[in-house]
């Protein structure tokens, strides 16, 4: 029997830098199913990495998590600034990123993306995609799940350039780097991935709705 491949080295980042305007309080510390949202997502990141960081612009509030905290170097730069600061600090070249308001972050999906990174090491971004249509845009289009993705340290230079130009959207990066999309039919075929994996909490009503298990 062939030996299993060694685990790929990866750092991880929990993004807690949002202003929580719609939520009305510090979102990452809000209880969800009996535990703070941030702690719930951290447990998933702990399953794939031993180098786990927290991006927070109010580090005093997140010191209780017992993790190294990185602050944005570009104020008001959004998640792109959090990603930039983390890529300057992490131990490994790969960084798994998850937002603190996504209670169904999937270890299985992250492990699948790390397998893709092992198979081909020149991907700069590995990101799940999801088909999406709305009343305003009825034609089906792809939604990139940028905050449940993997980024290589090679992204640091283009991210810094974007922030220097005042850009805040992570998607602006994707035009400049090598991106491996994980399409919906691929990640949905993985065992145990919750259909709500990319649901995020913006309001207390969202939290109450998502705490109710879906009907079979």
Automatic annotation (TrEMBL):
GTP binds at residues 15-17, 27, 72, 101. The N-terminal domain determines nucleotide recognition and specific binding, while the C-terminal domain determines the specific binding to the target protein. Transfers a GMP moiety from GTP to Mo-molybdopterin (Mo-MPT) cofactor (Moco or molybdenum cofactor) to form Mo-molybdopterin guanine dinucleotide (Mo-MGD) cofactor. Its cofactor is Mg(2+). It comes from the Bacteria. The gene is mobA. Belongs to the MobA family. This is Probable molybdenum cofactor guanylyltransferase. Its EC number is 2.7.7.77. PANTHER family: MOLYBDENUM COFACTOR GUANYLYLTRANSFERASE. It is found in: Cytoplasm. The lineage of its organism: Bacteria, Candidatus Eiseniibacteriota. Signal peptide: none annotated. It catalyses: Mo-molybdopterin + GTP + H(+) = Mo-molybdopterin guanine dinucleotide + diphosphate. Residues 12-176 form the MobA-like NTP transferase domain. It is an enzyme of class 2 (transferase). Mg(2+) binds at residue 101. Keywords: Cytoplasm, GTP-binding, Magnesium, Metal-binding, Molybdenum cofactor biosynthesis, Nucleotide-binding, Nucleotidyltransferase, Transferase. One of its GO terms (molecular function) is nucleotidyltransferase activity.
